[in-house]
Amino acid sequence: MSYSFVKITSYYKEFLKYYYSRYPEIRNKSYNEQLEHLMRQEFSMSDYYKQNFRTLNVDAHEIIGNAVDLQAAWAKENNVNVIGKELIIRQLKSISPEVVFFQDSSIYNGSWIEYVRSKVPSIKKIIGFRCSPYSKGNAFLFKNFDFMIACSGEIAEELRCCGIKTYEINHAFETSLVPLIENDNPWSEHDLTFIGSLFEGAGFHSKRKELLEYLVAQGIDIKYYGNFPEQKNLLLRQIAYSFNFALRKTKLNGIIGSFDVLRKIDNLTSMPKYFRISEKIIKNSHPPVFGIEMYKLLNKSKISLNIHGDIALRDAANLRLFEVTGSGSCLLTDWKENIEKFFKPDEEIVCFKTPEECAEKIKWLIENPGKCKEIAVKGQKRTLHDHSYHQRALLLNEIILNELRDLKK
Fold first, then answer.
1. What is the pLDDT of residue 210?
2. Same-domain check for residues 145 and 36
3. Could you identify which of 97, 147, 199, 290 might form a hypothetical disulfide with 165, taking C-beta atoms 3.0 to 4.6 angstroms apart as the criterion?
4. CB count, 10 Å around CB of 99?
5. pTM of the model
6. 35-39, 226-230, 295-299, 345-349 — which is least confidently predicted?
7. Which domain CATH number covers 198?
8. pLDDT tens-digit map of 155-174
9. pLDDT tens digits, residue range 226-237?
10. Number of structural domains, the chain?
11. Range of the domain at 320
12. Integer angstrom CA distances of residue 55 from 48, 210, 385, 389, 391
């Protein structure tokens, strides 16, 4: 059975700013030229599901809903005078997909999903996705999806407890990136690198911040590449959080789902607070890197540190597990109950349970470069063999086919 499929997502604003500052001339290209160029930056999931679905005879497409210049090019070429979500509706009508996958379910959710169904009659299944913190109070916004995909068993369990049909599909690595990463790599070698964000708020990165502060206090040289949280909008976010909290106690709580800003704030599980960053971390910091440049940096990092966001209580699940190992770096990650589902600790990756153990293992790996390299090689081999996007696409395709067959029963 063949079907048409569209994945719709939003890219980090920081990445889009970085991208358009590097390639300002891209705005003058056609929509297809812009889309292909943007995808070949290899950011996040890029169009890896589209690429791998097409090998499975699925007519797959990719839409980046918040890439304003890209979307404007499509609107101009198709004589459409709408923007934002209405523009996405027009794009879906032009494709007439049977299956739509909203990767960014923090923006695309709630009653708007039913609006999409009413406007695009070809659609048979609409899928949501969750792999980041969310308030359990807004889980009702996901009930309009036919089913959800979660990147961890932990999140899948939570959603099922809310009465939402959910499948678990873990993150992955795109194997075709390996030659691109290894060839023409200008980065110099680092002993230890951490690439990631430091966002304040419950469910985000307080443990990550504490670990980094401990390591730099121990005199460990760690190269940090990433953004620090913006504090300038703290008061506004606190007001919005209080407003949402008050709405939750009234019959007006449906208002939250009508505004993107309120929906984003509603994902927070506690009042936003000032997030103080150690001066030692700031001194060791560098601007964030994204996509193929990030992979190249990881490839030149002997050890790459990973620590999950606070939302991950039991399960290892984040994308960095596979980005690091797939790039050929030795992964040093916080231990989780399910880690052996993905890798063999001390053979394919290295795990730690405490900041003290993390520091000890960093020193041991640096003092034993041969063993560090051996673990990196085995970790990469495991990822390329067991955790590719092709394998994840096979799994998602099987789920979709079963769901479509159920419609005919």
1. 87
2. yes
3. 147
4. 25
5. 0.87
6. 226-230
7. 3.40.50.2000
8. 999 999 999 999 999 999 99
9. 876 554 455 555
10. 3
11. 175-229+275-386
12. 11, 44, 18, 12, 12
